[in-house]
């Protein structure tokens, strides 16, 4: 019960995150990205279930091809046996054996292709969905790209082409934290595919998405640490700037 990710819980977390972003930043594009990611997560739950389900039609087709190959080999063997009993020459027998060998090779290649057909189909669907999640990761990174905490510390000031800085330090911290949380949830959605279909190629792709999300999240938290350090510095400077009132003695004559 606690050894696998629950797709419903991931969707629930994304829905709550979308509400939190929309309540804190009404009309923000990040909330729309979170809403889009929630829809992808809901679709992932159904897609991963379909991928994990055995392909009955493909397996029936493989079984049919397998028994057809066995029947063909049996027919060739019967012809070879009948020719041997009829006293055919050695050359004809060798030709029959060569034909049987070619059939065996052809049947083996066909069966290999058919057996891998189901796996390749599932892999193709999983990789297509994972490519969509990789794109979402970079979209989230674009939203936090201009949220630069060092902008308030610039000496030269803003230029006409500089992005508008309308968020306070607290709001900027919350915005970056939402981006980091969304990156983590995107990686968890990707894991659902590797969980339902443990294919080496799919697993490596999921690991690549997780590494990318973790790397971007680390950069975001570096920004958050800079903001928090600046907030603590400003609070300390405000405390030091408070004037100290010295109480005057009640009797002026007393020095």
TL;DR?
The protein is elongated, with a radius of gyration of 34 Å. It has one domain.
Describe it for me?
- It is built from six helices and no strands.
- The chain is mostly helical.
- The chain has one domain.
- Helix 4 (90-145) packs antiparallel against helix 5.
- It is elongated, with a radius of gyration of 34 Å.
- 20% of the residues are buried.
- The model has no long low-confidence stretch (mean pLDDT 80).
Could you give the topology of this structure?
Layout: H1 7-24, H2 29-52, H3 56-85, H4 90-145, H5 169-196, H6 200-240
Helix pairs in contact: 1-2, 1-5, 2-4, 2-5, 3-4, 4-5, 4-6, 5-6
Counting DSSP H or I runs of 4 or more residues, the number of helices is 6
Report Rg.
34 Å
End-to-end Cα distance:
79 Å
Low-confidence segments, given as residue ranges, are none
Query: Per the principal axes of the C-alpha atoms, what is the gross shape?
Result: elongated
Number of strands: 0
Order of helices and strands: HHHHHH
Secondary-structure class: mainly alpha
Report the sheet with the most strands, covering strand number, pairing sense and barrel closure: none
Level of helix content? over 70%
Q: Any descriptors?
A:
about 260 residues, mainly alpha, 6 helices
């Amino acid at each position: 019960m606690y050894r696998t990710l629950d797709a419903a819980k991931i969707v629930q977390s994304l829905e709550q995150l979308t509400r939190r972003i929309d309540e804190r930043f009404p009309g923000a594009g990040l909330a729309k990205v979170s809403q889009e990611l929630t829809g992808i997560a809901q679709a992932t739950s159904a897609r991963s279930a379909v991928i994990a389900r055995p392909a009955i039609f493909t397996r029936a087709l493989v079984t049919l091809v397998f028994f057809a190959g066995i029947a063909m080999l049996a027919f060739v063997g019967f012809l070879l046996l009948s020719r041997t009993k009829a006293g055919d020459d050695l050359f004809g027998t060798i030709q029959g054996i060569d034909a049987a060998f070619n059939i065996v090779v052809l049947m083996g290649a066909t069966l290999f292709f058919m057996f891998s057909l189901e796996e390749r189909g599932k892999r193709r669907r999983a990789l297509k969905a994972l490519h969509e999640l990789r794109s979402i990761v970079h979209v989230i990174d674009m939203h936090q790209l201009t949220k630069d905490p060092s902008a308030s510390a610039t000496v030269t000031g803003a230029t006409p082409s500089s992005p508008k800085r309308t968020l306070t330090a607290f709001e900027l911290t919350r915005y970056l934290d939402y981006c980091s949380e969304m990156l983590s949830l995107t990686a968890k959605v990707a894991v659902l595919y590797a969980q339902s279909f443990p294919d080496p190629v799919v697993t490596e792709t999921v690991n690549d998405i997780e590494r990318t999300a973790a790397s971007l999240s680390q950069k975001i938290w570096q920004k958050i640490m800079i903001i928090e350090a600046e907030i603590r510095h400003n609070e300390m400077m405000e405390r030091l700037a408070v004037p100290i009132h010295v109480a005057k003695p009640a009797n002026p004559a007393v020095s």
